[in-house]
From TrEMBL:
Matching Gene3D superfamilies: Aspartate Aminotransferase, domain 1, Type I PLP-dependent aspartate aminotransferase-like (Major domain)
Known partners and oligomeric status: Homodimer.
Domain of life: Bacteria
Protein name: Aromatic amino acid aminotransferase
Function: Aminotransferase that catalyzes the conversion of aromatic amino acids and 2-oxoglutarate into corresponding aromatic oxo acids and L-glutamate.
Residues annotated with N6-(pyridoxal phosphate)lysine modification: 218
Taxonomic path: Bacteria, Bacillati, Actinomycetota, Actinomycetes, Mycobacteriales
Keywords for the protein's UniProt record, in alphabetical order: Aminotransferase, Pyridoxal phosphate, Transferase
Organism annotation: Dietzia cinnamea
Keyword flag Acyltransferase: no
Enzyme class at the top of the EC tree: transferase
Transmembrane segments: none
Length: 354
């Protein structure tokens, strides 16, 4: 007889990561193409030399550096093993079994998984036709059992960011007992009118029920090291920090993240280059007839519906790995110019076949 395990395991979807194919260009996981900056690599090497010791359990130096950087109190920040771990800690901190977690769909794949793991009920609200979150419908779906709402801005995988006025009107509607998590994994890529842009940290400081989740995996290029952070009111930061698996932010990750914060200008140049390429790739895809939504992140979304799997397989035949959401669309990370050209050549050939 095998041991008893949870009876609801089949209801927990698997997280499907972007594939890596040797020799192919990987545009499947919204990573950066370039490796860590030399100063960051040096900090990682220094930390590796002391890897016989456990890391600082509270990531104190990193938290204090982040607090300075964001102009908030250190008590408003906690670090985690990637922002996905902080998403999970947040669900565990606010939800009892049967409580509801609302999010737009399609959005970050982990939301339904971590909700189910915590015995909470995921409630997904369809996005608008242009790939943006339907915040009206999300606010309208709040019930007595709702504990948490994830607002992913810019939204993975569709790309649009929520405009500031729209977010504020939404936050005004959501009862204060419900926590709103602004998942800002791609915030460093947002451009445009300052009055329109959401700064999650400013929203956090103006409210009692809002947190911002950010990561070093994307613009900072540390996906392999696993480090992210949450900014929020103390009444949420303390419960979230309590849910952490002890020592889950490695000493290498803590040191690398601090070094990244010291290298702001160099990293800004990298995100600027992605933004330029993002416009070029999106314009080329629009010319090919793809209805690519506006994107403020380091990826584009092709709403290919039933053709998504064929397109993804075609790109893979051309040694370009994209991320397929079968029956819905394909998400393609913005890489460097050569990588993007390889992808665009494959996309052009796909169109010419249709
Ligand atoms: N939020 C969003 C919207 C994401 O796309 C991702 C990564 N794909 C994460 C959070 C988690 O990132 P990480 O755990 O690497 O910090």
């Amino acid at each position: 007889m095998s041991p008893d395990v949870r009876s609801d395991l089949d209801a927990i979807p698997a997280y499907v990561p972007g594939a890596s194919v040797p020799g192919a260009v990987k545009l499947a996981s919204n990573e950066t193409t370039a490796g860590p900056l030399p100063s960051v690599a040096a900090a990682i090497a220094d930390a590796a030399a002391a890897a016989n010791r456990y890391p600082d359990i509270t990531s104190r130096a990193l938290v204090e550096r982040l607090a300075d950087f964001l102009d908030v109190g250190a008590e408003n920040v906690t670090a985690g093993c990637g922002s996905v771990a902080l998403c999970q800690q947040l669900v565990q901190a606010v939800c009892a079994p049967g409580d509801e977690v609302i999010f737009g769909w399609r959005s970050f794949e982990a939301y339904p998984i971590i909700s189910r793991i915590a015995h909470a009920v995921p409630v997904s609200i369809p996005n608008r036709a242009d790939g943006s979150l339907d915040l009206d419908a999300i606010a309208g779906a709040v019930t007595d059992r709702t504990r948490l709402i994830f607002v992913c801005t810019p939204n993975n995988p569709t790309g649009p960011a929520v405009p500031r006025a729209e977010l504020r009107a939404f936050l005004d509607r959501v009862p204060e007992r419900v926590t709103v998590a602004l998942d800002e994994a791609y915030v460093e890529y947002v451009r445009g009118d300052d009055d329109d842009k959401v700064d999650g940290v400013a929203e956090v400081m103006a409210r009692r029920n809002v947190v911002s989740l950010r990561t070093f995996s994307k613009a900072y290029g540390l996906a392999g090291l696993r480090v992210g952070y949450l900014v929020g009111p103390v009444d949420l930061v303390v419960p979230v920090a309590k849910m952490v698996v002890p020592f889950s932010v490695s000493s290498l990750a803590q040191s690398a993240a601090i070094a990244c914060l010291e290298a702001g200008d160099e990293l800004r140049a990298r995100t600027d280059a992605v933004v330029v390429e993002r416009s070029r790739v999106r314009d080329a895809l629009l010319d090919m007839g793809h209805a690519v939504p506006d994107t403020q992140a380091n990826f584009v979304w092709l709403p290919l519906a039933e053709a998504a799997s064929d397109f993804d397989a075609h790109c893979r035949d051309h040694r370009v790995v994209t991320r397929c959401f079968a029956g819905d669309g394909v998400r393609v990370t913005i890489g460097d110019r050569d990588e993007n050209d390889r992808f665009l050549a494959a996309a052009r050939e796909f169109v010419s076949r249709m």
